[in-house]
Amino acid sequence: MSSSILVTGATGFIGRHLAQRLVHEGHSVRLWVRDSRRLTPDLRVLTTVVGDLGDPDARTRALSGVARIFHCAANVQTWDRWEAYHAVNVEGVRELVEGIIAQGPPFPHLIHLSTMDVYGFPLTPCDESCVPTGGEFGYGRSKWQGEQIVREQCRGAGVPFTILRPGNVIGPGSQFISRMGKELRRGVLMTLDGGQVHAGLLYVDNLVDYLLWAAKSPQALGECFNVRDPGEVTWGQFIQDFKRALDGRGWVIDLPFAVADGLAHLSAGVLGRLLPGEPLLHPLLVRLFGRTCGHSIKKIQTASGFVGAVPYPEALKRSVQWFQIEAA
């Protein structure tokens, strides 16, 4: 892999882990972030461009001379306005791709991080031949629109690209682990219909392995891949294992999907207009815990030969250890 690499979103969970791995492997890494104060101390020594994706000056400085771009920057909030998702996940992607094209060839290889949420939480697993809808929620819809921009504009201009759609990423620094851990310690967490649906978990270091593979493999060029860890870990199993590892005192309540879905729509609709902030229960979380996240990973397993270097028990252990330190 070339040593001339740009990482966007390095203040975030996945971007930080990726940047740290690249540095550890000896690459020359440039970061593009909105707020350099949020970088971890080990990344503050790197060449850093500060600015939004829509900032022309920042874009020129960030893109100049790089051979590969890992685009990890995104609005990943579970509860936000459509305008906020659209600004980063759609218009930000458009501005990035247009900036790449404007610089002219030779073009860098763009590795674009999307999400399995583009499938919209269907009843049955999808492979990459399924046509995404983006679903009914702002995050998934905006990420699907961003994917379309990458695919259409990059193909039209001859920019090499790869799209990865990760599942639910866990590991040290995961907001997902932090939120669930707090509830399992002394709060309330739900399962739906016995917690039997696939959780679609992906350990962050395994995702970084796939990102690095995508950046150097000819088989990845112009392709889109679902990414999660192998195995059939359900939400019920994951929540039980997490609670046991924490010796948590929180309540785990199981609800029928239809009941939880009705309560979530009420909470996000009527109550959402009366109370500020994210509702305690909203439809996205019900879909997340009640519909499969176990989408097919046969394509990326066949192309890469990977099976996930960090297995589920070790991934859970490392995630819990980080949470216990953070929560102490």
From TrEMBL:
<dbReference type="GO" id="GO:0016853">
    <property type="term" value="F:isomerase activity"/>
</dbReference>
<dbReference type="InterPro" id="IPR036291">
    <property type="entry name" value="NAD(P)-bd_dom_sf"/>
</dbReference>
<protein>
    <submittedName>
        <fullName>3 beta-hydroxysteroid dehydrogenase/delta 5--&gt;4-isomerase</fullName>
    </submittedName>
</protein>
<keyword id="KW-0413">Isomerase</keyword>
<dbReference type="Pfam" id="PF01370">
    <property type="entry name" value="Epimerase"/>
</dbReference>
<feature type="domain" description="NAD-dependent epimerase/dehydratase">
    <location>
        <begin position="5"/>
        <end position="227"/>
    </location>
</feature>
<comment type="pathway">
    <text>Bacterial outer membrane biogenesis; LPS O-antigen biosynthesis.</text>
</comment>
<dbReference type="InterPro" id="IPR001509">
    <property type="entry name" value="Epimerase_deHydtase"/>
</dbReference>
<comment type="similarity">
    <text>Belongs to the NAD(P)-dependent epimerase/dehydratase family.</text>
</comment>
